[in-house]
Amino acid sequence: MNSIILSAATRIVTPLMVAFSIFILLRGHNEPGGGFIGGLVAATAFALYAKAMGVPATLRALSLSPPTIAVVGLAMSTLAGLWGLVQSGVLLKGLWPLLTTADDGSKAGLPIGSVLVFDVGVYLVVVGSVLSILFALEADVAEENEGED
After folding, report:
1. CA distances from 143 to 57, 67, 127, 134, 136 (A)
2. Which end is more exposed in the chain, N or C (fewer Cβ atoms within 10 Å of the end residue's Cβ)?
3. Following CA atoms 74, 88, 29, 47 in sequence, which dihedral angle do they give, to the nearest 10 degrees?
4. CA-to-CA distance for 126 and 148, rounded, in angstroms?
5. Cβ distance 133 to 113 under 8 Å?
6. Nearest in space to 100 (alpha carbons), one of 112, 83, 90
7. Measured between alpha carbons, how far is 22 from 34 in angstroms, rounded to an integer?
8. Is the dihedral of CA 64, 66, 70, 71 positive or negative?
9. Any idea what the Cα angle at residue 136 is, between residues 132 and 141, rounded to 5°?
10. For the chain, how many structural domains are there in total?
């Protein structure tokens, strides 16, 4: 698309949308949000970028192909599930190795664990899957338009 306004707005809006998607991802443990919704927001940001700048520019901005992003996310989610199985004998058990609980019940440390790894994996699967579908549809439309010429 050759719109100067869309191109200029996309340069501002896309980083904000990606930052907001990461906020939604990280907030999802205690409040609404998480990997799926955050991934949809990020995929929407890159879809907007693809519409304004083109699919090749979006692929360059991503650095990895969308199927590769989805596979990395699937591997992360699988490893997070297996982590609980290996350590406690329960698949998808939430584990927080950096968080300690004192005798009085107070907690100290970082609340980073298998649940966050699983959510990041879901985030990447959603981003990779949605962009793979979107770029495949875009390629089909481009082929159709070339055939009409």
Report:
1. 18, 21, 24, 14, 11
2. C
3. 0
4. 33
5. no
6. 112
7. 9
8. negative
9. 150
10. 1
CA gap 26, 133 in Å, rounded: 25
Report the candidate in 94, 86, 85, 90 with the shortest Cα–Cα distance to residue 114. Answer: 94
pLDDT band at 145 (very low <50, low <70, confident <90, very high): confident
Please give the model's pTM, rounded to 2 decimal places: 0.88
Identify the domain containing residue 101 by its residue range: 4-148
Query: How many angstroms separate the Cα of 133 from the Cα of each of 38, 85, 126?
Result: 18, 33, 11
Query: Environment class of residue 60 by beta-carbon count within 10 Å: exposed (0-12), middle (13-18) or buried (19+)?
Result: exposed
